[in-house]
Write a structure and sequence with these properties.
heterodimer; A: about 150 residues; alpha+beta; OB fold (Dihydrolipoamide Acetyltransferase, E2P); five-stranded mixed β-sheet; 3 helices; about 15% helix; B: about 850 residues; Four Helix Bundle (Hemerythrin (Met), subunit A); Helix Hairpins; Heat Shock Protein 90; 6 domains; six-stranded mixed β-sheet; about 40% helix; elongated
């Protein structure tokens, strides 16, 4: 029996989980510089303590509509390292840390959208809602290729 | 990879580089014992380490090589080029095995018996004529040199076996080493010695090795992260200073000042860790020159100057290959063969000189040879043959320009493809590589005296000077290196953005520059409501292409630290990286190469014009007939205006005080009669000199007053825009400037109403031949009618076939009919029909060629009379 700790966060209406070991930090993306001509999944680049972080728009990556701009919504980003680079995944809301047993993880439902099943390692049934465990490597790496293929 | 192995690989690679250099030196100075000892020690260290790690293949080669070197050292064998080549060959084999080791972490299969046999044979004196201890055998006869039976060798008590040929007993070796002048017992601490040697590849081994301990190996990653952190520290300091600037009196002031100073020093030190002497990129070159001169049967000395010149590690890596290529080139194409050199009265030995020095934030590397220099004519003919330039262009180029053609893609002048260079990829690759790191390359050559290539590269790629520009709400950094100048354009400024077929261009001095808006390049949404925008134009040069980049604002120049782009963005050619500005915000660094690609579209259309210009200039001497001589003048504005020179009878510079005003306008006494003057846009002057273009038609003479007569150009007249104003036939690009072609008739009729009718109502003379001109284009009508009538013919103009037929139907008879070849008229009774064309093709007479036209008319008349 192996217990893992997951940080939960919300993108759109969906609750996602990412292993605490994969998360570098959580920060408020400030002074984001948009990158013209880049894929819509790229939210921009920003300075996080002297490093240039590429921010990924999680909603766009998952094919969700852009968040409505309002005073209340202050987006957050989860900092992750991937391939020696720093990325920030812009999310809607950060949740708690939950401890879950590997054995209880269930496979992706077969009818899950291809984009989603690509970034999902599996699903946990929590008390009142479903938690999708995110495959952060796929989330970061595959995004560009996926849309490039779609464009081609 | 195993730590031990990777350590071994790094060290051995460095040692081998040193051996290469040292061997070449040793060959030329065999008496230099210190060099030989150094080589011997390095080879021995490699052998020892190989045995320790368990790499039998390497060990055996190193052993055989060492044996041979040992013979050199003992003086048992003379040092010959062949023997040195053999040692070098074994070094190469070791390198090959090392490469395999690095990739696969095991020695490659196979053995080196061939090489070892050679080495052993050489050790026995097989390669040289000197008699070795065993009876001498003629070298060519020896096919193999199998290991002699063990009994033949000496017994070595330490190893408990018989010695291999050439092998020295450990005791002997020990004694030999103790006898050498090594500063420290190398056998005991081989690693330290190698490190020292690698760090100081200098003659004076004895002195330098003592300093060996003052250098340590540091992982590059550690340096990089140090760099990142220092940059961050600098930013934080800047922010603190910003805060403190607002408070007048603060207790933080003094400590912060100290922090500031320390930070600056720290930054400088960290930058220094990235710097390496350029000599480390040159290590391989002596070997290359040696091999090349052997292969080519030339004698070449390599002289290196300024090895200690430091530059960024990254730049150093990138410059290695181009340099190697250039050195090879100089050996192959630059320095002549011995016979040629002697014939030219030079010494047998050619010299290639490599020189590096700093110059204002850049490092300059010169590669010069004292060879034959570039063969201008051969390059020219080759370039023409390869279609790089055409003959006309080649005539107009200076020698230096011709020389630079060797940088053109796919250009190689070597008559034959050799092993050394001339594989079709040539200087263009070098140029591309140099430009990739923001450098430039140029050359000087004097026939018979040699060629010098000059490479100018930035000291570092990590920090560049950049121009911060703004477009809409975005800011971008443009590397200063490709920025030539800044130009402000707009209604209130001298420069204006002009349009050619909706393509934006800028007239700048003598050039017509294609313009591209950065907002278009980057697909930015442009806010149209900004009203009167006076744009900034950044004039940039990328390779051969010069263009203007339109931006909204130019902020500042800043030294920026270039950070690589995320791989997620890496595929975008428009950016070369990102950077963090002093205020902490991230901005993208534009890649001039990428941006220039967006210009390509704009450039193509402009290029056509530029091509025509350059071709016109080149072909001026050839008096190409399909061009029109145009008189450029200014009148009422700074823009040049033009009219066909063939219409102008004379150019006069009159005293303005002689101009009189009459009720019909200004007139001047000219050759005994009154000549009405028409101002062509400007005003007729009252004092000073008044330049006047004199037009005459029959008895009517009219002067056109202009501000200044600028030039006479001969260019294909391509009117691109129709006349928008009375008096203007249209706009054409002449000498790179959009120029209004003036409708001369318009102004002249204003001054002298008789002008318009003069052409057809001239005093008829008995023998006057009548010519009917059918021409629908007003420009050519205006060009041809006065031209033909000035030649003494009576000209009737018809604007089209309909009108011509109508005139013929009224009973008018003509001797000659001039008509456009594209709309031929049926046979006209009693008249000769001459087809004309505005192009230079077919049998038709070109409209712009006055002589051909008049000649055609005369011939037609003669044949008409004969008929």
């Amino acid at each position: 029996m192996s217990i893992r700790e997951y940080v939960t966060f919300r993108i759109g209406e969906q609750l996602f989980g990412l292993s605490v070991t994969e998360i570098h930090d959580v920060f408020r993306p400030a002074r984001m510089t948009p990158v013209p001509l880049s894929n819509s999944e790229i939210a921009g680049v920003l300075n996080l303590r002297g490093r240039i972080v590429t921010a990924i728009d999680a909603r766009s990556r998952l094919g969700l509509p852009a968040q409505e701009k309002s005073v209340k919504t202050q987006s957050l980003a989860i900092g992750v390292e991937h391939g020696g680079e720093s990325f920030g995944m812009v999310i809607d809301e950060i949740g708690d840390v939950v401890r879950l047993d590997d054995a209880e993880m269930e496979q992706n439902p077969v009818n899950l959208d291809a984009t989603w099943s690509g970034v999902s390692r599996g699903v946990y049934r929590l008390d009142n809602r479903l938690l999708v465990i995110m495959d952060i490597d796929q989330m970061l790496a595959g995004a560009g290729q996926g849309s490039a293929a779609a464009a081609a | 990879m195993d730590d031990l192995l990777s350590e071994f690989l790094t060290e051995t690679a460095e040692s081998l580089d040193v051996i290469d250099t040292e061997l070449v030196r040793f060959e030329s100075q065999p008496e230099d014992k210190a060099t030989l000892n150094n080589i011997f020690r390095l080879v021995h260290t490699i052998k020892g380490t190989c045995g320790f790690i368990g790499l039998p293949r390497l060990e055996s080669i190193a052993h055989a090589g060492e044996t041979l070197l040992g013979k050199f050292r003992d003086g048992a064998l003379p040092v010959t080029p062949a023997a040195v080549s053999l040692v070098l060959a074994s070094i190469d084999r070791i390198k090959a095995i090392l490469a395999h080791l690095a990739a696969e972490q095991v020695e490659p299969p196979g053995d080196d018996r061939d090489l070892i046999a050679e080495l052993e044979r050489a050790s026995e004196g097989g390669l040289v004529a000197v008699a070795p201890p065993p009876p001498p055998k003629p070298a060519p006869v020896i096919v193999t040199a199998p290991e002699p039976p063990e009994g033949e060798g000496r017994w070595d008590a330490d190893q408990g076996r018989f010695l291999r040929p050439g092998e020295v007993s450990l005791a002997d070796l020990e004694a030999a080493f103790n006898a050498t002048e090594g500063p420290e017992p190398v056998e005991v601490k081989p690693v330290a010695a190698v490190a020292a040697v690698a760090a100081m590849p200098d003659h004076d081994e004895d002195k330098k090795s003592a300093l060996g301990t003052s250098t340590i190996r540091v992982n590059v990653d550690v340096l990089e992260s140090l760099m990142t952190m220092v940059s961050e520290l600098v930013l934080t300091r800047n922010q603190l200073l910003q805060i403190l600037r607002n408070s007048t009196d603060s207790e933080f002031k003094a400590p912060l000042q100290r922090l500031s100073g320390v930070t600056a020093e720290l930054q400088e030190c960290v930058m220094k860790t990235r710097m390496q002497p350029i000599g480390s990129a040159w290590k391989k070159l002596p070997r290359i020159v040696r091999d090349a001169s052997n292969d080519l049967n030339k004698k070449i000395d390599l002289v290196m100057e300024g090895e200690a010149t430091e530059l960024d590690r990254q730049v150093l890596e990138l410059i290695k290959d181009p340099l190697t290529h250039m050195i090879r080139n100089s050996c192959d194409h630059g320095v002549e063969t011995i016979a040629q050199r002697l014939a030219a009265g030079k010494s047998e030995n050619g010299t290639i000189k490599l020189r590096a020095y700093h110059q204002g934030g850049h490092i300059l590397i010169e590669v010069s040879d004292d060879g034959a220099g570039l063969h201008t004519d051969r390059i020219r003919s080759k370039a023409i043959e390869k279609g790089v330039i055409d003959i006309a262009e080649s005539m107009a180029m200076t020698d230096a320009q011709i020389h630079r053609l060797i940088f053109a893609p796919g250009f190689s002048t070597a008559a034959k493809v050799t092993n050394i260079s001339g594989r079709g990829v040539g200087m263009d690759v070098v140029k591309t590589n140099v430009e990739l790191i923001g450098g430039t390359i140029d050359l000087r050559s004097r026939q018979g005296h040699g060629t010098t290539f000059i490479i100018k590269i930035p000291l570092t790629l990590a920090i560049i000077s950049a121009l911060i520009v703004g477009v809409e709400d975005h800011r971008f950094a443009l590397p200063q290196l490709s920025v030539l100048e800044l130009v402000r354009a707009g209604k209130r400024f001298e420069h204006k953005i002009e349009l050619i077929n909706s393509t934006r261009v800028l007239r700048l001095r003598d050039h017509l520059l294609p313009l591209v808006a950065l907002s278009d390049c980057l697909n930015l949404i442009v806010d149209e409501d900004r009203g009167d925008r006076s744009a900034c134009i950044v004039i940039m040069q990328v390779g051969e292409l010069r263009f203007g980049l339109i931006v909204d604002e130019v902020f500042d120049t800043e030294e920026i630290v270039v950070k690589p782009l995320s791989k997620r963005l890496g595929a975008m050619s428009e950016y070369s990286g990102a950077t963090i500005l002093g205020d902490g915000s991230v901005i993208m660094i534009l890649d001039p190469n990428g941006v220039s690609r967006s210009v390509a579209n704009v450039e193509r259309s402009v290029n056509r014009l530029l091509d025509e210009q350059s071709r016109a200039a080149a072909a001026a001497a050839k008096a190409s007939e399909h061009k029109v001589s145009l008189l450029l003048f200014s009148a009422g504005g700074s823009e040049p205006r033009a009219c066909p020179l063939s219409l102008v009878t004379r150019l006069e510079d009159l005293d303005a005080s002689t101009i009189e005003m009459t009720s019909r306008g200004p007139v001047v006494q000219y050759r005994g009669r009154l000549m009405p003057l028409a101002p062509a846009g400007g005003m007729v002057r009252h004092d000073g000199r008044q330049p006047v273009l004199v037009f005459s038609q029959g008895s009517v003479v009219v002067g056109l007053a202009v501000d200044a007569i600028l030039d006479i150009v001969e260019e294909p007249l391509d009117i691109q825009l129709g006349g928008q104003a009375p008096g203007v036939l249209g706009t054409a690009v002449l000498k790179g400037k959009s120029t209004e072609i003036v409708d001369v008739g318009h102004y002249l009729s204003q001054a002298e109403p008789a002008w318009a009718s003069a052409a057809i109502e001239m005093d008829p003379r008995a023998n006057r031949k009548r010519v009917l001109l059918i021409e629908s284009h007003p420009f050519f009508r205006n060009l041809l009618a006065p031209m033909v009538s000035a030649a003494g013919y009576e000209v009737t103009v018809a604007e089209g076939l309909e009108e011509a037929r109508a005139r013929l139907a009224t009973g008018a008879t003509f001797h000659v009919v001039l008509t456009d070849a594209d709309s031929p008229i049926d046979n006209v009774a009693g008249a000769q029909v001459i087809p004309l064309s505005s192009r230079r093709d077919a049998e038709a007479v070109p409209k712009s060629d006055r002589y051909a036209l008049l000649d055609a008319i005369q011939r037609a008349l003669r044949s008409g009379e004969a008929a």
